[in-house]
């Protein structure tokens, strides 16, 4: 099979397109013919080596944490899927990834693909969808009438988060540049802050919820705009930056120290705080499927690249200019 491999950490140029043996599913696993994958910022941070204190790979390695495809073979103990089923998934980073013509998943990591979505559209959803679901439903219990600030509303997480927050009945405030105002409003944002001209900390007060995917100073400012009992969900630990500055071990210590500081700040301000890690579970992903089938949440895709152009796709992801998701088409729909 064709796959995009890395043999070391580094720039997008470390990707090599190679022919390698097709994997074989174990007893509870499914072999998926990959139709599409997608890129998330965590992918290039892993490729750069910025996450190696927590995610340390042996090489060669296939990256990619989103997939949509068709089940081609199943293990003898699989009960949830049959050959020919269309699925989507965000597998754990412990597996070989999805930048390939085939990938193997545990059956519990996958859900049936939403009807009416192309594979490219479906592949754009799992990681961001599971991350936001973990934040809003599993941890933060966002509810009708809550006022929420969603940082970086035009990104992959932000575009999904705005839509889910509206479906849960929240009043949504988001930050983005002026060129993305129309996009985030079309997704349901009630108020939009131009982060280049306004400081969100001076505009927002007494919020019930903040979803922060930026980290650093934005997290520190967020405690002051939340009411007592409000919830701060943080998606970015800052590990890649700390690793670059202090090395992998020093970077890990810096993250632990930072997390302790955030916990103490949360206690002193009466704010609930959670560091969000998505759970790669098919049953959680299946809870998002009705929103997608009913089109109350729609995929937002900026650009689609071929697998052969994976290095170019990573460069575009690193630019920070993507509106929504970047998709890799492996078997074009």
Overall residue-averaged pLDDT value? 92
Low-confidence stretches at least 5 residues in length (pLDDT < 50)?
A: none
Give the number of helices: 11
By CATH, the topology of the largest domain is Quinone Oxidoreductase, Chain A, domain 1
Derived from helix and strand composition plus strand pairing, the structural class reads alpha/beta
> What would you report as the Rg, rounded to the nearest angstrom?
20 Å
The name of the CATH superfamily of the largest domain reads Medium-chain alcohol dehydrogenases, catalytic domain
User: What does the overall shape look like?
Assistant: globular
Helix content range of the residues, please? 25-40%
| Secondary structure: number of strands | 16
Briefly, what CATH class of the largest domain? Alpha Beta
Describe it:
By secondary structure, this protein is α/β, with parallel strands linked by helices. It folds into 2 domains: 2-125 and 299-329, Quinone Oxidoreductase, Chain A, domain 1 (Alpha-Beta Complex), CATH 3.90.180.10; 127-275, Rossmann fold. Helix content is 32%, strand content 26%. The protein is built from 11 helices and 16 strands. The protein has helices at residues 41-48, 119-123, 126-139, 156-167, 181-186, 200-203, 217-225, 239-269, 282-286, 289-293, 310-318; strands spanning 2-6, 15-19, 29-39, 61-62, 67-74, 86-89, 102-106, 110-112, 147-150, 171-176, 191-194, 207-212, 226-234, 272-275, 301-306, 325-329. The strands form 3 sheets. Strands 3, 5, 6, 7, 8, 15 and 16 form a 7-stranded mixed beta sheet that branches. Strands 11-10-9-12-13-14 form a 6-stranded parallel beta sheet, with helices on both faces. A 3-stranded antiparallel beta sheet has the order 2-1-4, with no helix packed on it. Helix 8 (239-269) links the parallel strand 13 and strand 14. Helix 3 packs across helix 4 (156-167). It is globular, with a radius of gyration of 20 Å. The two termini are 19 Å apart. The model has no long low-confidence stretch (mean pLDDT 92).
């Amino acid at each position: 099979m064709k796959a995009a491999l890395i043999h070391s950490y580094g720039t997008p140029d470390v990707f090599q397109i190679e022919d390698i043996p097709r994997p074989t599913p174990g007893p509870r696993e499914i072999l998926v013919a990959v139709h599409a994958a997608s890129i998330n910022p965590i992918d290039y941070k892993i490729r750069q080596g910025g996450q190696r204190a927590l995610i340390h790979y042996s090489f060669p390695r296939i990256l990619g944490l989103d997939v949509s495809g068709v089940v081609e073979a199943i293990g003898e103990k699989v009960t949830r899927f049959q050959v020919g089923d269309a699925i989507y998934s965000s597998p754990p980073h412990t597996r070989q990834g999805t930048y390939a013509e085939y990938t193997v998943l545990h059956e519990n990591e996958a859900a049936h693909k939403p009807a009416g979505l192309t594979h490219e559209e479906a592949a754009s959803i799992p990681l961001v969808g599971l991350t936001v679901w973990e934040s809003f439903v599993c941890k933060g219990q966002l509810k009708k009438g809550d006022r929420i600030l969603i940082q970086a509303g035009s990104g992959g997480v932000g575009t999904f988060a705005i839509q889910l927050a509206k479906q849960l009945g929240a009043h949504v405030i988001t930050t983005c540049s002026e060129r993305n105002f129309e996009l985030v409003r079309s997704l349901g944002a009630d108020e939009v802050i131009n982060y280049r001209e306004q400081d969100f900390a001076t505009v927002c007060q007494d919020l019930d919820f903040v979803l922060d995917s930026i980290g650093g100073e934005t997290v520190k400012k967020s405690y002051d705009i939340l009411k007592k009992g409000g919830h701060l969900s943080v998606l970015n630990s800052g590990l890649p930056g700390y690793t670059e500055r202090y090395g992998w071990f020093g970077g890990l210590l810096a993250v632990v120290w930072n997390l302790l500081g955030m916990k103490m700040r949360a206690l002193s301000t009466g704010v609930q705080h959670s560091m969000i890690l998505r759970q790669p579970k098919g049953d959680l992903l299946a809870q998002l499927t009705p929103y997608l089938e009913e089109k109350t949440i729609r995929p937002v895709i900026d650009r689609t690249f071929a697998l052969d152009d994976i290095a170019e796709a990573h460069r575009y992801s690193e630019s920070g200019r993507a509106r929504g998701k970047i998709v890799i088409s492996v078997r074009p729909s």
